[in-house]
Structures are given as structure tokens and as C-alpha cells.
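Troubleshooting log. The previous structure file for this entry was overwritten by mistake, so regenerating from the original sequence record. Sequence copied from the archived sheet and checked twice against the printout by T.R.
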Amino acid sequence: MIIALVIVAIVILVAVWLVGMYNSLIKLRNNRENAYANIDVQLKQRHDLIPQLVATAKGYAAHEKTVFEEVTKARSAAMSASTVNEKVIAENQLSNALAGMKIALEAYPQLQADKLFVKLQSEISDVENKLAAVRRFFNSATKELNNAVQTFPSNIIAGMFGFQKEPMIEIPEQERAQYEKAPEISF
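Regenerated output below.
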């Protein structure tokens, strides 16, 4: 009789532990998805501002047509990406295209003085700063989920229910050297 009670108690404790671990993994996954939803909000704002910036700049720099086409093409690719990994790649390409446009447009002092252009640049800069913040939050949420998926004993539950290590937003290897290089400052 006592042995049966001990066995029932152990089974109940194991069941409670399994449910708790599973619920913890679900919360971590939902936290990661929420973090990416925050990125999506900022990306939508970024995507909405880009056509305005391009249209404003086109009037001043009509012969920079290829730069504007690259930005427009990269924006379309970013908007049509469906998975997190596709979005990360597409957004990196869009960031590169925007950087190229910024460099090309620095040669137009009259554009730099245009109030609408300055306002749009400021708004895009604000969105980029917010994107950086929400990307850090996303990576933090991803790290927490990955830690739970890979560490014992939660990795047992994670394996049983199909949880797996998820990718973070990172700088692609081919671009890493560019970002690690100190900026050149000249007067």
C-alpha cells in the first residue's frame, strides 16, 4: 500500500515537472515570436518610409537611377519574404541598398537641405535605431529559447515535442569584415 502511494506520488511529481517544463518552452517560444512581431512592426514602418524617401531624392538625383532601383527591388524582396530566415537575408540586402543610396545622395547638397528629405532621413534613422533595439530583444529571446532547448533536462522535453534551436539575427559572414573595420574619419 505504501509502495503504491510512493509510486503514485513519483508519477504525479514527474507529470507536474513535465507539464511545467513544456509550458516553460511554450512561453519561451511565444516570447521569441512576440519579439519578431516587434521587428515586423518596425520593418513595416521602414518599408512605408522608403518609397517617400526615394521619390523625394529622385527629383534631385535623376541620374542615380540604378541606386533607386536597387533600393526598390530590395524593399520588394523584403516585403515578400515569408520565413524568419528569408526576412533576415532580405532585410540585410535592403540595409545594404539603403547604405548605398545614402552614399550616392551625399553628393547633393541641395537635397541635404530639403526639409522633406531631412525629415524622412530622420524618420528612417529613428526606425533603424528602433530596429536595432528590437533585434537585440529578439536575439535575447532566441538565446533564452535555445538555452532551454539545448540544456538538460529541458532538452529531453524539447526533443519530445519538436522544439529545436532557432537562428538569431546576425551579420552575414561576407559582411562581417566591413562592420568590424573602424570607420574612416576625415576633416
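The chain has seven helices and no strands. Archived copy saved in two places this time.
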